[in-house]
């Protein structure tokens, strides 16, 4: 277990670096030991340059059956980027984005590692690779001032999927600003081939502003100590794997996701809604696969490789199954699968019929009379304005219960939504323009850009067709249309039913 260990020398140097960011070359190289004399066995190894990729991409599998001397060049950059719509953050990165570039090597490789800190950086940084056997996982040898480059060599003794991260003081702040990534050490015999490989990391951001508060945010140490992050996200931003940035696959393909948690604190209950991981390499050890797992727990500073075959088309949602993190803090991504349906594996909703319970045996005379009476009552209600009004009030009451059990989490109890994340339902021009479209949105969900009252939202609303009945949808929309200053229209169960059955 190599978590972020700090050694006195490193700590001292970090301190120097923080007090005096313009570290001189001499100070920066105070620990330099000179190049290691490599034995002939290593010198004889073929040399190659590692391919590094930004998430969600993964470098191609290594086909070679021998160990090599691999040169890794990783650049640290401090960059201002989007954390959520309207929200920016000064990310400290390995390679320019969060998470850091994916590094892929093979068991037995001798790695010549270069950490290059861009001259525009304000702070010194280093790297602790959990794949390294040695003090600080490399941290003690890679403390690098802005405009400097450090080199050290290590041999990858253990196969596995490992996290790397910055270990410069204050460590939680460096990790909490995005300084983490994954390094895969393939076993000698490689991994089973798959059709798609993806790279996803979860990490939380302790911004001074609360979720969605616009502007350039800075790191809030108090929230970090209390472990109260406003953001918990995949790949460095809210919505980084949503809409046209979603992961993709075709029906029949096998998918492998290398999933890591940078933290600095929060663990992940990683789950994909609508999929079962047929293979999980728990905790990133690649030797003992677990089978048929629904949710896998990934520690902070840990990783997992999951595999599954996609059998049916649709959108599959990646979440931290600690679900307020997914629906309120950003830990939500998408895998879009295209291809032919397989209605034996998954039929889609087949039937929505009236259910009267055991007392009314369908087809019996009494059931028929009951149905006829219901129709008459419905007709009577329609023609009687008092009763019709009462029906609407009842719908509003019931609809409020649906709203407060489901919709409020995103659209907020006051219907005003959250800027940059969830559109308002209060006085929404988009909603008022077309009520039937709203029914379709609730049934089928909505992704891609949508403009409400002049503000563009580009996020995802999950489909509710499997969750809500026609009556509940009619009720909740009637509630929405009669709240917060909205116009006061009503929708009937029959209208919703007709829309649900449109394509059948
Ligand atoms: Cu750092």
% residues in beta strands: 25-35%
The total of helices stands at 13
Question: Ions, cofactors, ligands: which are bound?
Answer: copper (II) ion
- Rg, Cα atoms, Å: 28 Å
What is the first-to-last residue Cα distance? 56 Å
Largest sheet: 6 strands, mixed
Low-confidence stretches: 1-30
Number of strands: 23
Notes on the structure:
The protein has 504 residues and is α/β, with parallel strands linked by helices. Helix content is 24%, strand content 29%. It is built from 13 helices and 23 strands. The strands form five sheets. Strands 1, 2, 3, 5, 7 and 11 form a six-stranded mixed beta sheet that branches. A hairpin with a 2-residue loop joins strand 2 and strand 3 (87-94). Helix 9 packs across helix 12 (470-481), helix 11 packs across helix 13 and helix 12 crosses helix 13 (493-500). The longest helix is centred in the last third of the chain and has 27 residues, at 385-411. The radius of gyration is 28 Å and the shape is elongated. Mean pLDDT is 90; it is low at 1-30. Bound molecules: copper (II) ion. Copper (II) ion binds next to loops.
Could you give a short description of this structure?
The protein has 504 residues and is an alpha/beta fold.
Defining traits:
504 residues, elongated, alpha/beta, disordered N terminus, six-stranded mixed beta sheet, 13 helices, binds copper (II) ion
